[in-house]
Amino acid sequence: MPIYNQRETESSIYQLWEQSGFFNPDNLKVKKSAKSFSIIMPPPNANGSLHLGHAVVITLQDIMIRYKRMTGLKALWLPGADHAGFETQIVYEKKLEKEGRNRFSIPREQLYEEMMSFTLASRITMEGQLKQLGASCDWSRKKFTLDDDVVKIVHKTFKKLKADGLIYGGKRVSNWCVKHQTALSDIEIKYEPRQASLYYVKYFLLNKDGSISNDYLTVATTRPETIPADVALAVNLKDARYKKYVGKYVLNPLNNNKLIIVSDRAVDKDFGTGVLKITPDHDRADEEICSRHTEIPKSRGKIINTLGRLEGVDIPNELIGLKTPEARVETEKLLAQKNCLDITHGENGINRNYVNSVAVCYKCNTVIEPLSLDNQLFLKVNAKPKNGGKSLRDLGLEAVKSNKIKFVPTRFKKAYIDWMDNLKDWNISRQIAWGIKIPDQDKDVFDTWFSSGQWPFATLMSTKKNDMKTFYPTDVMETGADILFFWTARMVMLGMYVVGKPPFKYVYLNGMVRDKDRQKMSKSKGNVIDPLGVIEMYGADALRIALITGNAPGNDVVISEEKIRGYRNFTNKIWNAAYFIQQNVQAPIHKQKIKFNKQDKATLKELKTVVKNVTKNMELFRFHLSAEIIYHYFWHTFCDKIIEENKIGLKSDNLAEKNKAQALVFTVFQTSIKLLHPFMPFVTESIWQQIINPITNDKKEALVMTAEWPKE
Fold first, then answer.
1. Residue 656 within a domain
2. For 35-38, which contacts have Cβ atoms below 8 Å and span 24 or more sequence positions?
3. Which of 477, 495, 514 is the last residue of a domain?
4. Could you tell me the strand order of the sheet in which 182-184 lies?
């Protein structure tokens, strides 16, 4: 038997599995009473090659589906691909930049068709890479988030939400990415600490006769360039310093507009001076304060356009056309000239060492401009449908609080509930070309999370006739902890709303992939591991088990090439043990005629304990422990002890002794191969075909993939 060569073996083994038809649960030879088990694959973005994060997700799901298939369940793993809206458009924009083109100069329909061709080609590549990882999913049911039938379901959900009064448009402050020219939802922005200046600006009070007083209120702000859009000042009613000023007026220092002073509970009296400028066209919190006060104008009109430049009739000429950072510098000059910087604070009225938490686009790190836009669509998450029922938020909470959905690990339950308790309405419209078009809106498309949030039921509703009845709710949603709120929570809410049932029973969350020093992998650090490269070098089995061992649910996945190389050695160990079996065990083995001695029985008892422990941990989603148990047992017990202890018996001239040794060694070996299969499917299937099948000649277990899981 030659040295195991994964390059020659893995492709042919995958073809064998596909040709068997057993990825499709309809073809599995299971009992009529067999229960179903289903996983809907989180659809990888069809815009590039798979990375190690994908490899973790795919490996974990494949372990689950292979294990459940072997236990006799009607197991479905439905694969798919995500058009990935905004993220794919960013990838394609980078491609256009390299070609010297710009998406804004390409007609919308042409851009869409170009991106469709790009995505479909990427999807084919991606599916090939999934096969390289050993993904035993049912390709006959594969779905794409832009399939016509999926799009129809998404539109139907939108229509239902609209009929229930849960969709609204109109003018509202939204998160705007100036670089990509689109609005983003609250969880598509991130906050970064950045060095800033805190400006202490004087707003002079007006006397009753309209004349300007020498008295003033000081406002601390990091955005003086938005002062022309102020509509009021606000203080906290419990702040004794300012009670006497409520109801009075001040003068806007940059355009002389008259601003009323109001009191509001949202004002933090401990921040800055305790006086807040209210700019409802450029701040969500200010917009909400305005909604509570009839005496405040709801808007003066935004003074920053979608390109991030200042414009409008209320702003000084010196600021017109400037980008906001430039306008901030010029505003400082104007305020100093007007004696409107309070020099009793900071250095000449400015704290230059202020660290501010700045909202930036999660993809390009461009500072977000909060802009009052009138073409956005929002989904109400806290309101009850007008036709009756619970709010989306309450539905999402109910599914988890009632334990209809359980988290692995359990600590994520609290994180989920805390986030849901603070849920804000969701902006579902995007100003990009790529995605599912919003009905009755010419240009906008749905936020990709709105369509992918319907993935579990949209897939099963659009595959085979009885799939919803058979496989919904699905059993496990395995995904990254980093998209718990992006995606998982939204699947729960929309699944409960549309179907009336949670989309899955368990949520298994994995952490980020990190290097051996627990550093986040990035190209700039030079520590990125290409999963396809290491598969080529060490084999898919070595990568898979390296990703699992030592990595508990919810924790970051620590991986290194050294670790993968080490498990390549384990692959060789399994292969060498198989060669030993081939040379020393002859067919047929009649186990029922064998009389095992006390030591043999102890060996078989220990094997049963191993099976029990592996199985128990598989059921509890502790795959890392199952992998470690079978790894150590195979190498240190089977290879180092059991084989060594039985070498004399295997060579014995005493036929009974020889048969006994063969039966014992083969039983342990065959059982071990079954236990290893979910983790290392290629080498185990290759051994099954070349060695175990010729010995057992068991047509019922022609594939280890569909062989019966060992009994405890």
1. no
2. 35/73, 35/74, 36/73, 36/74, 36/75, 36/76, 36/470, 36/471, 37/65, 37/68, 37/73, 37/74, 37/75, 37/76, 37/475, 38/75, 38/76, 38/77, 38/78, 38/470, 38/471, 38/472, 38/474, 38/475
3. 514
4. 182-184, 172-177, 369-373
The model's pTM is 0.91
pLDDT digits (tens, 9 = 90+) for 651-663: 999 988 999 999 9
75 and 25 in contact (C-beta within 8 Å)? yes
Residue 525 pLDDT: 65
Say yes or no: 367 and 403 in one domain: no
DSSP annotation of 464: S
Instruction: For residue 212, give both structure tokens.
Output: 């300007």
Asked whether residue 447 is domain-assigned, the answer is yes
Residue 626 in any domain: the answer is no
Q: Are residues 362 and 423 in the same domain?
A: no
The rounded distance, in Å, linking the Cα atoms of 31 and 73 is 8
Q: Tell me: do 254 and 315 sit in the same domain.
A: yes
Encode 127-167 in three state secondary structure: HHHHHHCCCCCCHHHCEECCCHHHHHHHHHHHHHHHHCCCE
Residue-level pLDDT at 522: 60
Alpha carbon distance 46, 23 (integer Å): 22
pLDDT at 524: 55
C-alpha 176/C-alpha 536 separation (Å) is 43
Same domain, 222 and 350: yes
Which residues of the chain are modeled with pLDDT < 50? none
Confirm whether 330 is domain-assigned: yes
User: How do residues 133-152 score in pLDDT, each as one tens digit?
Assistant: 999 999 999 999 999 999 99
Residue 207, pLDDT score: 95
Q: What is the pLDDT of residue 298?
A: 86
Domain range for residue 400? 33-166+390-514
Torsion of CA 300, 304, 306, 312, to 10 degrees: 60
Count of CB atoms situated within 10 Å of the CB of 308 = 19
Beta-bridge partners for 360: 190, 367
